[in-house]
Amino acid sequence: MPHQIRLATPTDAARLAQLRHDFRAGQGAASEDARAFVERCTTWMASHLAPGGGWRCWVAELDQHIVGTTWLHLIDKLPNPQDQAERHGYVSNVYVVPELRGRGIGAALLSACLAACRADGCDAVVLWPTNQSRSLYARHGFAVHDDLMELRPVS
Ligand SMILES: CC(C)(COP(=O)(O)OP(=O)(O)OC[C@H]1O[C@@H](n2cnc3c(N)ncnc32)[C@H](O)[C@@H]1OP(=O)(O)O)[C@@H](O)C(=O)NCCC(=O)NCCS
User: Fold this and answer.
1) What is the mean pLDDT of each run of 10 residues along the chain (155 residues)?
2) Chain mean position to CA 66
3) Which residues line the pocket of ligand 1, CB cutoff 6 A?
4) How many Å lie between the centroid of ligand 1 and the Cα of residue 27?
5) CA-nearest residue, atom 1 of ligand 1
6) Nearest residue by C-alpha to atom 23 in ligand 1
7) pTM of the model
8) CATH topology for 4-136?
9) Which of 42, 27, 8 lies closest to 112 in space, CA to CA?
């Protein structure tokens, strides 16, 4: 059965929090207890997916089970007298469960998210890629630019 892409709702928060944990804990040792993290993250996601919560999330479902996610937050820009869109898109947490990777689910999630960025009129869409995901983003038009500066850590 092919996967389905849909917008997440607050009722998806517990599953999304588990996937968030799997993603980040898979990248390096977690300093927070898994159960405590998933509980905290479920609360955060439920409130941020509610109307006015500021975030949207697309999920990929297979047999009505969420197997992938992509999150989007729009960042307001200051008003600009030039003909330029007044918000940026920040994409985060692009994730597909390991056993279903390489079948185009990540690309479908990203396409849905970028379609919303276009529909909402974004100036730029930014993200921090992992090394292995760079080719996925490049195929969707992302490039490394030299006009963005980042301060990290902020201390
Ligand atoms: C990135 C990810 C969501 C792609 O999902 P997917 O369904 O496999 O994606 P698609 O089948 O549409 O495209 C495959 C692309 O995924 C990327 N990819 C493959 N394995 C990957 C891995 N272990 N980690 C990250 N990206 C990977 C590559 O860009 C690949 O393209 P390529 O064939 O040119 O190398 C998925 O690999 C994943 O969840 N990785 C771990 C989390 C992660 O690194 N997310 C990116 C955060 S910025």
Assistant:
1) 93 98 92 96 98 98 97 97 96 98 97 98 97 97 95 94
2) 14
3) 23, 94-96, 101-107, 127, 129-130, 132-133, 135-136
4) 13
5) 133
6) 132
7) 0.96
8) Aminopeptidase (3.40.630)
9) 8
